[in-house]
Amino acid sequence: MEEQILITMRDITKTFPGVVALDHAQLTLRKGEIHALMGENGAGKSTIIKCLTGVYERDAGEIHMAGIEGNIFNHSTQEAQKIGIATVYQEVNLCPNLSVAENLFIGREPRTKLGMVDWKVMNRKARKIMDDLKIRLDVTNILENYSLAIQQMVAIARAVDMDCKVLILDEPTSSLDDTEVAKLFHLMRGLKKKGVGILFVTHFLEQVYEVCDRITVMRNGKFVNEYDVAELPRMQLVAAMLGKDFDDLATIKPEGASAAGGELVVEARNLSHKGTIKPFDFEIRKGEVVGVTGLLGSGRSEMVRCIYGVDRAQTGTEKMHGKDLKINAPIDSIKAGMGFLPDDRKADGCFAELSVRENIILALQARQGLFHTLPMAKQNELADQFIDLLQIKTPSRETPLSQLSGGNQQKVILARWLCTHPDFLILDEPTRGIDIGTKTEFQRLVLKFASEGMSIVFISSEIDEMLRTCSRMCVMRDGAKVGEIDGEMTQESVMAAIAGGEQQ
Amino acid sequence: MSVLRNSLQRATRQKLFLPIFCMVLVLLINLMKSASFFSIAINNGVLYGRLIDILNRGSEIAILAVGQTLVVAVSAGTDISVGSVMSLSACGCCTLLAGYGVNSTSTLVMPMALGMLGGVLLGGLCGAFNGVLVANLKIQPMVATLILFTAARAIGLLLCDNQITYIRYDPYKYLGNFIPGIPIPTAIFVTIAVISVAALFLRKTSLGLYIQSVGVNSRAAHISGINSGWICFLCYLICGLCSGIAGIVASSRIYSADSNNIGLNFELDAILAVALGGNSLAGGKFTLAGSIIGAYTIQAITTTLLAMGVSTDQAPVVKAIIVVIIVVVQAPVFRDWIGNRSARKLTIAKVAAESGSGEGVA
């Protein structure tokens, strides 16, 4: 074998109460390669990484690293760092209120003879590190003044400067835009040339094919296979991840999507919220799926937040089923028959420490009111019903939500709204950060509910996802609704509308 | 053996394990020290004994702990004004009963129940004030309640015209002592009543779920249709009412309103009770039972120390040491450390066994 093997992990097993997270999983990382680790939510990607970096201790299995004899046990991330394994997480864990140089050298600042921090040397060294990586910035500037991508690169630079041989990037790109991703990839390629082995976890297929050399696919805590990227067609990769022949997403087609004759469910005129969204009109009919498209920050989320009443509308009127609707707080919209799945799952959706059952029944209970508690038997029945219907993977209905994987958490929040039987459901980025199998499932569900008469607003950053589900789209730009498109929609026509030009 | 270990493991995972364990530990030390600690006798028609004393004297802390638990759960902050509010309620009650400026009285100017109700409502008013500051104005709980922490005691003193008002009217002493003919201290009944009402309310309504969801994630609770601000306000209001009740009990014990001493440092005991009960001070999930066990544990420690002859001046030092130990044992970091240690030992043993058997084959 000509490539030098850096790390081999064999037969790694890890169990949590009620769940086998890793079942004889394995991973091989070579010197100077970018290795993608792929799999659905809950496949065990994070767990195997955490076993490597010492966050978790494995129950069984062996880890070997080039240059180190014997089986490695890391008991903490510091120990892992000492032998050259560095990790950069999705959420940057640096100190945003310190300068770039301070962040690079925190904990190992160069000292003068008197034991004081030698700022000159520190800044000079920091400048050299950033120059070497071809990142142009002022190292004395405060870190939070830079974009998330730059912050991530500083985190990577810090890891590289600490002599890392193995760099683990855990979904670094999910909050970056395209140009930032390009910068990051440039940096990764540079490191690869220097012989660093990079383990790259991501959900984006495009990025895997752009930058990676090899792929390890995991499923249900097990190792599926290792592939050369060049030899693995996309469909096969997806099939490997799902563990079945991939029934193409494209087979989903809205049936009877046009609901032009249906009853008007929600009718909003001239709604606005100061500072977030300019006055807009909106209407949706029974059984209709309407998309809201636009760039990030164009007012997509703000528009639905205004309709639902999270941000209270300051002008305009809203009607539901022809009756005037006055929304002071979300409870009013829930009572009227609305549901809202927010885009920021962690901050606006999850009750991490509460059980799956409590998470599911909460909105229904809130509508019932304080003094009309749902009987426990009813709560259990509802929870079981939705765990079954949405195929939520959980050890039990009393498991805290935090122990579920991202996609399953999202399903629980969807269940919260479904059990209120809403007439009008808003889904704001329901599929962000979840794997492709669950994505397909979500799209199917949306179409199923619509065919049962529910009106749905569907927001997604992925245009093709909306093309498959929506019969009409509102186009947003710079905090205002600039038009609507319907009929024959294609990727190109939607892009053109987002970019500008087409007006209603 | 393994069955025993398994059931022991299961028991230690129970949420209430540690609070109960601490309680048992304190009682066990007493048992070793002197068995007479547990003896209960009837003297002059009323029950006497250390256990009765703990139950009796722990009443105020237990009542305060009920309110404090809810406040901690909903706002991830503590209400440090409860001790001062106790004092204010007591002063309010005594002034209502005796009339403004009266130093000592044996006749009441209004029905006793009405005066006591007034005192409790005064506590509720303080709770409402705290609630508005925290829930509506979004002031940090500790800062918001610091206002009444400093002010309430002084307002109480003003209400009593800068003196200690004595109510020398026998029925007024019943609440903090004994009702003639009943051998059990009345405060125990009051505590049972408060706890029962709270537990019933939490069980029969969805308040518990609401409080926990607001405590865990108030933004998500708002979107899910819960009026986060109102729930938060409600918890502070309940906490204020609890302080009011505790204040009246404390006042009845000494049949007076001693503004400077009633409820002194009780906020600390109440917060400690919540922590000892295994509740996270970061809010969210809570258990009322844990806090109440915690409250009586604190009182048991105090009573034990006094019984052992530790002087009242030195008792806090010993109490602090015991509390440090209990809190450290309960800390997640410590528990993880213990867990990891035993897990590591196990893996090392396993690896050693594997390599040993491997050599044997070779």
UniProtKB/TrEMBL annotation, chain A:
<dbReference type="GO" id="GO:0005886">
    <property type="term" value="C:plasma membrane"/>
</dbReference>
<dbReference type="GO" id="GO:0005524">
    <property type="term" value="F:ATP binding"/>
</dbReference>
<dbReference type="InterPro" id="IPR027417">
    <property type="entry name" value="P-loop_NTPase"/>
</dbReference>
<dbReference type="Pfam" id="PF00005">
    <property type="entry name" value="ABC_tran"/>
</dbReference>
<dbReference type="GO" id="GO:0016887">
    <property type="term" value="F:ATP hydrolysis activity"/>
</dbReference>
<protein>
    <submittedName>
        <fullName>Fructose import ATP-binding protein FruK</fullName>
    </submittedName>
</protein>
<dbReference type="InterPro" id="IPR003593">
    <property type="entry name" value="AAA+_ATPase"/>
</dbReference>
<feature type="domain" description="ABC transporter">
    <location>
        <begin position="252"/>
        <end position="503"/>
    </location>
</feature>
<keyword id="KW-0067">ATP-binding</keyword>
<keyword id="KW-1003">Cell membrane</keyword>
<keyword id="KW-0472">Membrane</keyword>
<keyword id="KW-1278">Translocase</keyword>
<dbReference type="InterPro" id="IPR003439">
    <property type="entry name" value="ABC_transporter-like_ATP-bd"/>
</dbReference>
<dbReference type="InterPro" id="IPR050107">
    <property type="entry name" value="ABC_carbohydrate_import_ATPase"/>
</dbReference>
<keyword id="KW-0677">Repeat</keyword>
<dbReference type="InterPro" id="IPR017871">
    <property type="entry name" value="ABC_transporter-like_CS"/>
</dbReference>
<keyword id="KW-0547">Nucleotide-binding</keyword>
<feature type="domain" description="ABC transporter">
    <location>
        <begin position="7"/>
        <end position="245"/>
    </location>
</feature>
<keyword id="KW-0813">Transport</keyword>
TrEMBL record, chain B:
<dbReference type="InterPro" id="IPR001851">
    <property type="entry name" value="ABC_transp_permease"/>
</dbReference>
<feature type="transmembrane region" description="Helical">
    <location>
        <begin position="179"/>
        <end position="202"/>
    </location>
</feature>
<feature type="transmembrane region" description="Helical">
    <location>
        <begin position="61"/>
        <end position="78"/>
    </location>
</feature>
<dbReference type="GO" id="GO:0022857">
    <property type="term" value="F:transmembrane transporter activity"/>
</dbReference>
<feature type="transmembrane region" description="Helical">
    <location>
        <begin position="288"/>
        <end position="310"/>
    </location>
</feature>
<dbReference type="GO" id="GO:0005886">
    <property type="term" value="C:plasma membrane"/>
</dbReference>
<feature type="transmembrane region" description="Helical">
    <location>
        <begin position="142"/>
        <end position="159"/>
    </location>
</feature>
<keyword id="KW-0472">Membrane</keyword>
<feature type="transmembrane region" description="Helical">
    <location>
        <begin position="85"/>
        <end position="102"/>
    </location>
</feature>
<keyword id="KW-0812">Transmembrane</keyword>
<dbReference type="Pfam" id="PF02653">
    <property type="entry name" value="BPD_transp_2"/>
</dbReference>
<keyword id="KW-1133">Transmembrane helix</keyword>
<feature type="transmembrane region" description="Helical">
    <location>
        <begin position="229"/>
        <end position="250"/>
    </location>
</feature>
<keyword id="KW-1003">Cell membrane</keyword>
<feature type="transmembrane region" description="Helical">
    <location>
        <begin position="108"/>
        <end position="135"/>
    </location>
</feature>
<protein>
    <submittedName>
        <fullName>ABC transporter permease</fullName>
    </submittedName>
</protein>
<feature type="transmembrane region" description="Helical">
    <location>
        <begin position="16"/>
        <end position="41"/>
    </location>
</feature>
<feature type="transmembrane region" description="Helical">
    <location>
        <begin position="316"/>
        <end position="334"/>
    </location>
</feature>
